[in-house]
Design goal:
This protein is an all-alpha fold. About 70% of the residues lie in helices and about 0% in strands. The termini are far apart.
Protein backbone atom coordinates (compact mmCIF):
# COMPACT_ATOMS: atom_id res chain seq x y z
CA UNK A 1 0.00 0.00 0.00
CA UNK A 2 2.83 2.33 0.88
CA UNK A 3 4.39 1.81 -2.53
CA UNK A 4 1.17 2.70 -4.33
CA UNK A 5 0.91 5.96 -2.35
CA UNK A 6 4.52 6.76 -3.14
CA UNK A 7 3.89 6.29 -6.87
CA UNK A 8 0.78 8.50 -6.72
CA UNK A 9 2.77 11.25 -4.95
CA UNK A 10 5.47 11.11 -7.62
CA UNK A 11 2.85 11.32 -10.36
CA UNK A 12 1.27 14.33 -8.66
CA UNK A 13 4.67 16.05 -8.42
CA UNK A 14 5.32 15.41 -12.09
CA UNK A 15 1.93 16.79 -13.09
CA UNK A 16 2.50 19.93 -11.01
CA UNK A 17 5.83 20.46 -12.77
CA UNK A 18 4.01 20.59 -16.09
CA UNK A 19 1.74 23.33 -14.79
CA UNK A 20 4.64 25.54 -13.75
CA UNK A 21 6.80 25.20 -16.84
CA UNK A 22 8.17 28.56 -17.89
CA UNK A 23 8.62 29.48 -21.51
CA UNK A 24 12.18 29.72 -22.67
CA UNK A 25 12.95 32.78 -24.75
CA UNK A 26 15.35 32.31 -27.63
CA UNK A 27 17.65 34.82 -29.24
CA UNK A 28 15.76 36.94 -31.82
CA UNK A 29 18.24 35.90 -34.54
CA UNK A 30 18.15 32.19 -33.68
CA UNK A 31 15.88 31.25 -36.60
CA UNK A 32 18.01 33.20 -39.08
CA UNK A 33 21.22 31.55 -37.89
CA UNK A 34 19.59 28.12 -37.97
CA UNK A 35 18.43 28.65 -41.55
CA UNK A 36 21.94 29.79 -42.56
CA UNK A 37 23.50 26.66 -41.06
CA UNK A 38 20.99 24.43 -42.83
CA UNK A 39 21.74 26.21 -46.11
CA UNK A 40 25.49 25.75 -45.55
CA UNK A 41 25.03 22.04 -44.90
CA UNK A 42 22.98 21.69 -48.09
CA UNK A 43 25.65 23.50 -50.09
CA UNK A 44 28.35 21.19 -48.74
CA UNK A 45 26.34 18.13 -49.78
CA UNK A 46 26.02 19.31 -53.39
CA UNK A 47 28.82 18.08 -55.65
CA UNK A 48 31.16 20.76 -56.88
CA UNK A 49 30.68 21.57 -60.55
CA UNK A 50 33.82 21.61 -62.59
CA UNK A 51 33.95 24.48 -65.10
CA UNK A 52 34.69 22.01 -67.90
CA UNK A 53 31.30 20.35 -67.45
CA UNK A 54 29.54 23.38 -68.91
CA UNK A 55 30.79 22.26 -72.33
CA UNK A 56 28.69 19.11 -71.95
CA UNK A 57 25.62 21.30 -71.67
CA UNK A 58 26.09 22.30 -75.31
CA UNK A 59 27.40 18.97 -76.57
CA UNK A 60 24.47 16.84 -75.38
CA UNK A 61 21.89 18.34 -77.78
CA UNK A 62 24.39 18.17 -80.64
CA UNK A 63 25.09 14.51 -79.87
CA UNK A 64 21.36 13.79 -79.73
CA UNK A 65 20.82 15.39 -83.15
CA UNK A 66 23.77 13.44 -84.54
CA UNK A 67 22.35 10.15 -83.23
CA UNK A 68 18.91 10.87 -84.70
CA UNK A 69 20.42 11.67 -88.11
CA UNK A 70 22.53 8.52 -87.95
CA UNK A 71 19.47 6.40 -87.13
CA UNK A 72 17.48 7.91 -90.00
CA UNK A 73 20.32 7.28 -92.46
CA UNK A 74 20.78 3.71 -91.32
CA UNK A 75 17.03 3.04 -91.58
CA UNK A 76 17.01 4.41 -95.14
CA UNK A 77 19.96 2.20 -96.10
CA UNK A 78 18.40 -0.91 -94.58
CA UNK A 79 14.95 -0.48 -96.09
CA UNK A 80 16.11 0.74 -99.48
CA UNK A 81 17.77 -2.59 -100.34
CA UNK A 82 18.45 -4.05 -103.78
CA UNK A 83 16.49 -6.57 -105.83
CA UNK A 84 18.53 -9.48 -104.50
CA UNK A 85 17.73 -8.42 -100.97
CA UNK A 86 14.06 -8.27 -101.92
CA UNK A 87 14.25 -11.81 -103.31
CA UNK A 88 15.94 -13.06 -100.14
CA UNK A 89 13.39 -11.24 -98.02
CA UNK A 90 10.54 -12.82 -99.99
CA UNK A 91 12.16 -16.25 -99.60
CA UNK A 92 12.41 -15.84 -95.83
CA UNK A 93 8.83 -14.62 -95.64
CA UNK A 94 7.60 -17.62 -97.60
CA UNK A 95 9.67 -20.02 -95.51
CA UNK A 96 8.40 -18.46 -92.31
CA UNK A 97 4.78 -18.67 -93.48
CA UNK A 98 5.22 -22.31 -94.53
CA UNK A 99 6.94 -23.24 -91.27
CA UNK A 100 4.18 -21.84 -89.08
CA UNK A 101 1.32 -22.67 -91.46
CA UNK A 102 0.42 -19.07 -92.08
CA UNK A 103 -1.37 -17.83 -95.13
CA UNK A 104 0.88 -15.23 -96.68
CA UNK A 105 -2.02 -13.20 -98.04
CA UNK A 106 -3.77 -13.11 -94.68
CA UNK A 107 -0.87 -11.78 -92.60
CA UNK A 108 1.04 -8.71 -93.69
CA UNK A 109 4.31 -8.74 -91.75
CA UNK A 110 5.58 -5.53 -93.36
CA UNK A 111 8.42 -7.55 -94.83
CA UNK A 112 7.04 -7.83 -98.33
CA UNK A 113 8.62 -5.85 -101.13
CA UNK A 114 7.20 -2.56 -102.30
Amino acid sequence: MERKEHIEQEVEKTLRCFETIENIESDPFFYTRLQAKIRDLEEKKKPARHPGFSIGYYLRPALLVLLVVFNILSAVLVFRGSDTQSDVRQYYLTTFADEYALNQDEYDLFLSTN
